[in-house]
Design goal:
Strand content: 15-25%
Largest sheet: 7 strands, mixed
Radius of gyration: 19 Å
Distance between the termini: 31 Å
Order of helices and strands: HHHEHEHEEHEHHEEHHEE
Number of helices: 10
Structural class: alpha/beta
Amino acid sequence: MPNNQYEQQYKKNVIDFFDSRTTYDNDRTIHRALPLLDLVPLQKGQKVLDMATGTGIIAIAAAQLIGSEGKVIAVDFSSGMLAQAQQKIEELGLQNIELIEADAEYIDFNDESFDVILCSTAIVYFKDIPAALQKWYRYLKPGGIVGFSCCSEESCGTPLIIEICGKHGISLTSINEPTGTPEKCHHLLAEAGFENIEVKIQQLGYYRNLDQAGEWNGGWFHPQENPLLEVSSEQMAELKTEYRQKIEAEATEQGSWYENLTFFVTGRKL
């Protein structure tokens, strides 16, 4: 379980955020998840672990590929996300998925239990990514594959928030920093013992209208620290105003570009 007060609050904020996303599945969330499976040759009868499964987009697709003789274990700590996953599983009549409500960072499994371990767009929420990858390495059978996806450091609007806060003496670090380049992703897997590492890159960015783009709620996710928690309501209002002004100033006729350069990363336990 989370072992300090900040981490406990951070995890609660993440859970609350995802619990609130009652219409999570759409073309964009599905399109950014499924390319991971294109890089992992799933086979009938395999045992798959999907960490931080969310609404089960990857878990359900994997379950359909491995067939009734295979098994998917899907873990998430958001009951709201898992409820959406369960509804889809029941509608599809799938019998080979087990959903577990637990913190994916702290749950344990026996060594050499899985053929494949997947984590779609969620690894950056982990407090200790190297430790998680080392555990996943242990959970994999020899020859097993790990696959995860993440975004570049320049993605998801974080550079602009960091820039504006920096002008006010508030130092922020992007949650995407640990996995924010292909080289960092490769290094993390290599350090955990994986080989045959591949990183595929896709640009999944899109234009948003100014109402969408200019609306920042002042939130900031980071598993280690969040200096914005100490900011007064007056200063936060000022930061939000500057954010909107910058978005409007940089917008084009198409709207405001939302960078989402995504890395799909795989490695094998030999």
